[in-house]
């Protein structure tokens, strides 16, 4: 159930039976020569939508722009600086809390968001702590990366081994191709498996990873794997979300 597609009285009815909401967050950034610029946002949205549909949970609008400063050397990439993203998330979560939501479950599609989203949670809690008040009863925020759900990691390892890499991975590209098959385009990549390593700013990233991939062989992506990854991520996500609601 998508928040954007229901009315406010329906939100009120939902709140009477659940205080939980799923919030997809990703990024708009290059994903190598084969991956869509929206890969991280799309993956989070696809998995969140699958969970929401299966267990009738509310899904918030996707945060499609994340912290991706290191990808700005490639056309199409967009970023919030960390302080901007923290401010955006703080306002968004505070809005939801004001209506009575108490379990805010972020499904993330971008590793580069993790530190900033966790910092945003600390900002939200600090608001109450510094005033010497308790947070509204039971308020908890959680960040779950769809790509680190245990059975997703196992499946990706079984399918791709080391060629999964860490950016423009065959698993994330497969998932987007499953949801948007019209965007699937096979390419021959040279080298097949991209270099691994570290980076600082956007210029350093582009120099170190010239086609944008990190450690991944994106050419292994395919729609059939995307379907398996989707089913696995949704199953893991439902289990994790239900545990979170009961904390
Ligand atoms: Ni990605």
Task: Please tell me about this protein's structure.
With about 250 residues, the chain is mostly helical. It has one domain (about 5-245): Rossmann fold (3-Layer(aba) Sandwich), CATH 3.40.50.10310. Helices cover about 45% and strands about 5% of the residues. A three-stranded parallel sheet has the order 1-2-3, sandwiched between helices. Helix 2 packs across helix 6 (about 170-180), helix 2 (about 40-55) packs across helix 8 (about 225-245) and helix 3 packs across helix 4. The radius of gyration is 18 Å and the shape is globular. The protein binds nickel (II) ion. Nickel (II) ion binds near residues 39, 40, 110 and 167. Nickel (II) ion binds near residues 40 and 110.
